[in-house]
Amino acid sequence: MNEPFFLVSCSPRRGGNSDAAVRELQNALPGSCLVRRVAEAGVRPCVSCGLCASHPGSCALDGPEDGAAALFQAMFQARLSILISPVYFYHIPAQAKAFVDRSQRWWACSEKPGRGKALSAVFIGARSRGEKLFEGAERTLRYMALGLGMEWREPLCLYGLDGPGELAASVEGLERIRDFAGRLGGAFS
Ligand SMILES: Cc1cc2nc3c(=O)[nH]c(=O)nc-3n(C[C@H](O)[C@H](O)[C@H](O)COP(=O)(O)O)c2cc1C
Questions:
Q1: pLDDT single digits (tens) 117-160
Q2: Which residue from 89, 106, 129, 141 puts its CA 20 to 30 A from 122's CA?
Q3: For residue 124, what are the contacts with CB-CB under 8 A and spacing of at least 6?
Q4: What are φ and ψ of residue 78, in 5° steps?
Q5: Residue 136 CA to ligand 1 centre (angstroms)
């Protein structure tokens, strides 16, 4: 993979606001993008088996039927990865949280596979306001970045988007994504 940008779409809903944000990012980022939908990647949730505590970097759930390793590999190859996620009960959807939890294998590693790479996010919520709306999601991804050795970049937070076509119809929302992509992407092109 030679794409400088990796976009991880975190909504289980196809054709919704996260997908619209991904399309806009693809158009606005200054380089090619690899795109994956985490809800369709077959990421199994961590079961706290303890293997990674004794064998840092290993995960007992890796295998042909599991999609986590391929997503992490793409993250470590891209210069900048962006998770695009709706807010579900003040957090990210369960499928995306399962992916985050699978990074536990590198938490105790001295060799951080994401060193020199960056992580950011676009968060989307239906509420029109609320200063804590994105707080849980942001903190989780910030600590995922830390565990992987990646640099965390401030996310873009979009309020007031609920129905599946609302971002695609929002001139202001699309403009904010283009602006975010231009400012952030320029540093990694
Ligand atoms: C299970 C569930 C929980 C949600 N929880 C919240 C919430 O806590 N706060 C909020 O503002 N929106 C919440 N929403 C609304 C979504 O964030 C919103 O519809 C978003 O635009 C969906 O993005 P998508 O089209 O990419 O799926 C929730 C939606 C679902 C389905």
A1: 999 999 999 999 999 999 999 999 999 999 999 999 999 999 99
A2: 106
A3: 17, 18, 21, 84, 85, 86, 87, 158, 161, 167
A4: -75, 155
A5: 14
CATH number for the domain running over 5-188: 3.40.50.360
Q: What per-residue string of b and e applies to 73-106 under the rule 16 or more CB within 10 Å gives b?
A: ebbbebbbbbbbbbbbeebbbebbbbbbbbbbbb
Ligand 1 pocket by C-beta < 6 Å: which residues? 11, 13, 16-18, 86-90, 124-127, 133, 161-162, 164
List Cβ<8 Å contacts ≥24 apart for 18-21.
Answer: 18/84, 18/85, 18/86, 18/122, 18/124, 20/165, 20/167, 20/168, 20/174, 21/84, 21/122, 21/124, 21/158, 21/167, 21/177
Residue nearest to atom 5 of ligand 1 (CA): 88
User: Distance from the CA of 140 to the center of ligand 1, in angstroms?
Assistant: 17
**Domain locations along the chain:** 5-188
Enter the pTM of the model: 0.97
Token pair 């971002």 is found at 167
